[in-house]
Amino acid sequence: MKSIAVLTSGGDAPGMNAAIRAVTRTALTRGWDVYGVQHGFAGLMSGDLKKMGPRDVGGIIQQGGTVLGSARAPEFKSEEGRKKALRHLNQLGIEGLVVIGGNGSQTGGEALFKMGFPVVGVASTIDNDLVGSEITIGVDTALNIALEAIDRLKVTASSHNRAFLVEVMGRDCGYLALMSGIAGGAEAILIPEMEKTPAEVAEILKSAYAKGKAHAIIVVAEGCTNNADELIKYFKEREAELGFEIRAIQLGHVQRGGTPGAFDRLLATRLGAAAVKSLDRGEYGVIVGLNKGQITTTPYTEVTGKHKSLDLGLMDLAKELDG
Ligand code: F6P
């Protein structure tokens, strides 16, 4: 292999830049050419690729977001779109591709691999729903951002005797909500994998008030049937019986925009380098991830179209800890 391309795709995740840097530098060390694709698969289809040297990835390890840009590219789902991408790769003599992203992005990578192109994926999404890596790039930073928000909300909630509904991202997966809820000492955690009715949440709030708590924090995953928007209407009408005044906040994209912490920088660096090594030894059609402390490869066939399951035993732990 003499020349590869790298792209970031789907929702950006803190640590993507560290992964781009690791891919680029590890490949350059091998004497390969490296092309950065702008805006994910969209840039691959439009031929928006630029050759990168070691300085192009200097000073980015500490930056959130992605210097290559990202996009969701529905056109890539069509064979025509993928053929366009292949044409650009072939014209530039590129022989391998590293796809840094989550579920949708790796599905795109697999489609290209099935057309005969060597692709290796790097597990990166704040949702942590990707099979093939126990933890994905961006999760730890996003979790810490959610946690900082919860800690701050608790302060103001206590001053005013209020309850806060804090909606966190995660698409259909409750990982961010569950972990930030436990680490933030939330009174209730609502996740799509184990829904609670508004009436059940109301009981939790009433009980917290009766116990003399000065605040209550309810962490809600955005993928719940009753998200924060729905719940706030229900609770606003019942404030008098709940005891607490109630407020809702959606953390949204704030969770994605952070400066990557040490964990994500290290994970991204290890996975980025591992992706290049995988291409080098001719192991394609896999994603690189972290499992039981080791860097591993998992075939696309075991990754795409699936969702990693959540350890629901942690919901019991959260309940046990409610004082
Ligand atoms: O997959 C990452 C993620 O941030 C999800 O948690 C969220 O549902 C989605 O992306 C938001 O997508 P967009 O940035 O396109 O609004």
Q: What would you say this structure looks like, in words?
A:
With 323 residues, the protein is of the alpha/beta class. The protein folds into two domains: 3-138 and 260-302, 3-Layer(aba) Sandwich (Rossmann fold), CATH 3.40.50.450; 140-256, Phosphofructokinase domain (Rossmann fold, 3-Layer(aba) Sandwich), CATH 3.40.50. Helices cover 40% and strands 18% of the residues. It is built from eleven helices and eleven strands. A seven-stranded mixed sheet has the order 3-2-1-4-5-10-11, sandwiched between helices. Helix 4 links the parallel strand 4 (96-101) and strand 5 (119-123). Helix 1 runs parallel beside helix 10, helix 2 crosses helix 3 and helix 5 packs across helix 6 (175-183). The longest helix is centred in the middle third of the chain and has 22 residues, at 139-160. It is elongated and about 70 Å long. 52% of the residues are buried. The chain binds 6-O-phosphono-beta-D-fructofuranose.
